[in-house]
Design a protein that fits this description.
2 copies of one chain form a homodimer. With about 290 residues, chain A is of the alpha/beta class. In chain A, about 50% of the residues lie in helices and about 15% in strands. A 6-stranded parallel beta sheet of chain A has the order 3-2-1-4-5-6, sandwiched between helices.
């Protein structure tokens, strides 16, 4: 079965490799072509023209960087969707806004193409291991059809109708960003209170405050390793989209709003290219410890 | 080796049982005596007079409900400390403030008694299984002496000098309270955005947003089971102490401050006896969904 894959960057490349490893015939397109050709050793065929990625494809997977990139690559006369066969499935696995998920689903439906919004969490390590959390929005029947395609990449769970995969990813990012802020504040309190944050992290392991964020991003904060990882500037894209969605459904979420503001301060201070965990720098700066 | 145990409530009782199970001779005192006599099946001797708990004890462990209870039971002429032998160790494992930890250590030192502040995280389940996270403040040599006593109850990690165990527990509680707030906001966003929070919780498992809080308190939020667990009114004791400590060392921690305020609103609204996870009720109420 042939799968088209759009966007073979940090996350997309290992995801495409997992699909090829599971026996799918994968055609890949990437804006910088060399990132697609680099997958030849896995038997993945790089294609030059966008439309080619849809040829004979049971499904096309998009792992593109933003709503705008999705619109550019998927929609319009030269877009991939126009080349997809009726009955095939468009699966958008990058983090997109809920309105974008709905716009794509509508455009797909108009062509007889099914659509799932299926963003992921778990990072490059999860992509390589095929253990990503995959949050899926879309029709239950389409989800069942696509399950075998998604499974080599991780653990797909259907959240609800179209758009709810994107919503779940925004909720995921709200929790991730907020947990980073909590760990950063706890570590700065420890530092200033005469305790060693490294021992704090070790002591908290296994207790109620433990989390993947405490272990991974906490370790980054301790050693000061802020090479991304996930750049902080992407965090504010997600947290902004989460707040916009909250506003749309009439919700005020004060913790999410405050954390979004802290990340915006971090980016405004010039640290947008650093990992999310660099938020501890902003907690220190706000307290004159920068 | 004899251990005195003060406070055999929800947490203290299984901790005392773990010690007895590891071969220590345990004497137990509790304000409501029947909670101490209920441990007779584990070979634990209930004592009537506070001072008796110190008799022949290598260490006395305090698992008392508050700073005030510690002061009442441990300090003063009729307190346990006055009955402890020089060279023995006072180990305070309940959650106390940093100033209280220092006051106890000073009072102990004046009598030639060593002191550790060693609060725990992991709940009743962790206490029963002997898997508590134990955050220890105090001299390194005393910690080494006490390690064999602590180990049947969980995983002791020394954070630093006296007071840093209490500090670590406050940091732990800041993270716990904040994560509850984040999960509550994410679930309310899911509800209002047309997604099922139960599916969201399931999908997030294993991703970067996963945590013990998402799994346990998240499940409570989904089914609406707010029988404690940990009553919300205790949360504001801890978060208040954390903010006080932050103020003492000149720190403003905006996320911790906001979360403390949300829990105070929850308690003021009459939900102080409910589990921490009932914070989702306050998130709903603030948005007119109560």
């Amino acid at each position: 079965m042939r799968i088209g894959f759009l966007g073979t960057g940090l996350m997309g490349a290992p995801m495409a490799r997992r699909l090829a490893g599971a026996g799918f015939a994968v055609s890949a397109w990437n804006r910088s072509r060399e990132k697609a050709t680099a997958l030849a050793d896995a038997g993945i065929a790089a294609v030059d023209q966008l439309a080619e990625v849809a040829r004979d494809a049971r499904a096309v997977i998009g792992m593109l960087s933003s709503d705008d990139a999705c619109r550019d690559v998927l929609l319009g006369d030269g877009g991939v969707l126009a080349a997809m066969a009726p009955g095939s499935i468009l699966i958008v696995m990058s983090s997109i806004s809920v309105p974008m998920a709905r716009e794509l689903a509508d455009a797909a439906a108009a062509r007889g193409v099914a659509c799932l919004d299926a963003p992921v969490s778990g990072g490059v390590a999860g992509a390589e291991a095929g253990t990503l959390a995959i949050m899926v929005g879309g029709d239950a029947a389409v989800f069942e059809d696509a399950r075998d395609i998604l499974r080599p990449m991780g653990r797909p769970v259907r959240i609800g109708p179209v758009g709810t995969g994107a919503l779940a990813k925004l909720a995921n990012q709200m929790i991730v960003a907020g947990t980073i802020a909590l760990v950063a504040e706890a570590f700065v309190l420890a530092e200033q209170g005469g305790a060693d944050p490294a021992r704090l992290r070790e002591a908290l392991a296994g207790g109620f405050a433990d989390s993947i964020i405490l272990q991974r991003q906490g370790q980054r904060m301790i050693v000061g390793d802020f090479v991304p990882g996930g750049p902080a500037k992407y965090q504010i894209k997600d947290s902004g989209a989460a707040l916009a969605l909250a506003g749309e459904v009439g919700l005020d979420l004060p913790v999410a709003r405050l954390v979004d503001g802290l990340f915006r301060e971090l980016v405004a201070a010039g640290d947008g290219e650093l990992d999310h965990s660099a938020l501890i720098r902003q907690v220190r700066r706000r307290n004159g410890l920068g």
